[in-house]
Amino acid sequence: MRIGVFDSGVGGLSVLKSLYEARLFDEIIYYGDTARVPYGVKDKDTIIKFCLEALEFFNKFNIEMLIIACNTASAYALKALQDRANFSVYGVIDAGVWATKKVISDKNKEILVIATKATINSKEYQKRLKKEGFNNVKALATGLFVPMVEDGIFSGELLQSAFNYYFKDIKSPDALILACTHFPLLSKSLQEYFGKKTRLIHSGEAIVEFLKTHNNLQSLKYKARLEFYASSDIKSLKNTAKIWLN
Ligand code: DGL
Fold first, then answer.
1. In the chain, which residue ranges form alpha helices assigned H by DSSP?
2. Which of 30, 72, 202 to mutate to test the pocket of ligand 1 (most atoms within 8 A of CB)?
3. Would the CB of 173 count as within 6 Å of ligand 1?
4. What are the structural domain ranges in the chain?
5. CATH fit for domain 94-202, picks 3.40.710.10, 3.40.140.10, 3.40.50.1860, 3.40.1010.10
6. Which residue puts its alpha carbon closest to atom 1 of ligand 1?
7. Ligand 1 site, residue 122, Cβ cutoff 6 A
8. Dmax over Cα atoms in the chain, in whole Å?
């Protein structure tokens, strides 16, 4: 099975890593819209327009499934892509909410969603978590983490300052949804900051488990040959892929 993975830029490589390691597919085509990243500060119509253009890109490849790795794109454009695509399209939000439900059974537990401004403003996570019965959900835009991760800042003083700035009024939640492609790279530092009590929910791991459960796919069965495309600077995307995917 050949599938596509779409992201606004390099961040989706964190989701690709989980898919690659799970070896659920023969071939994965990754496309990052590196020329127009970040999506997380853009408006709804622009995000949908860019995602529809990405769909056109994937139409050339005869894929059987498209995974939108980008949370911002999943928040605004999932339905538009599902309506137009002649293959199945999955976003990471459904998987993230599903994974949260699996690890947190008490609906009074505190859930914190961190994401880009656009994802938080879409209220998609908040609405879906509420629908599942969670009644103690906080959502926080932590956009500065995106350029920090792209600059290779995964720990240290600058990151701690950003944590103190964003989380000054936040007590350790029971679950922290890393609702942005870049945030899994901060997992270690976030776990140290909030302590062991907090369960981190990672979009990449969530989508792998989600697909295995809902599509009856099996891990470690396939080669997962990778092909990379970008709307600009493919070299830089490939370099990041080498680092992030080890
Ligand atoms: N990929 C985006 C997300 O997961 C983060 C980067 C961006 O703003 O485009 O929301």
1. 13-22, 44-59, 71-84, 92-103, 117-122, 124-131, 145-150, 157-166, 187-194, 203-215, 234-244
2. 72
3. no
4. 2-91+205-244, 94-202
5. 3.40.50.1860
6. 70
7. no
8. 48
List active site positions. Answer: 70, 180
Question: Residue length, the chain?
Answer: 246
Is the beta carbon of 230 within 6 A of some atom in ligand 1?
no
Q: Give residue-wise pLDDT tens across range 4-36.
A: 999 999 999 999 999 999 999 999 999 999 999
Architecture in CATH for domain 2-91+205-244 = 3-Layer(aba) Sandwich (3.40)
Say if residues 66 and 90 touch (Cβ distance below 8 Å). yes
Side chain identity at residue 204, one-letter code:
G
Q: Quick: pLDDT tens for 161-196.
A: 999 999 999 999 999 999 999 999 999 999 999 999
